[in-house]
Input
Amino acid sequence: MKTTTKIYGCKTVDLNDGTELHVHMANNAGRGSNNVTLTRMRKNSVRPQYTRSYGADVIAQTTTSGWRGTVNFSKRVQTELGI
Output
């Protein structure tokens, strides 16, 4: 995977299969183990500022934990995203 852009303080990762992963990290305390939302979209899709603004073009979406820019990219997360 190759990091391609940085938008709204979060990264968009090119998965080199015609899709990309949008990473949205929450900055609010108390979110526990789901403070990162990962959304798999077609490459060059419009990235909204908020995850609630995604439309029907979402391929897969899941939440996971993360801290200081490090995202838990476990087998469960990969399976849920179809990666």
User: Anything to note?
Assistant: The mean pLDDT is 83.
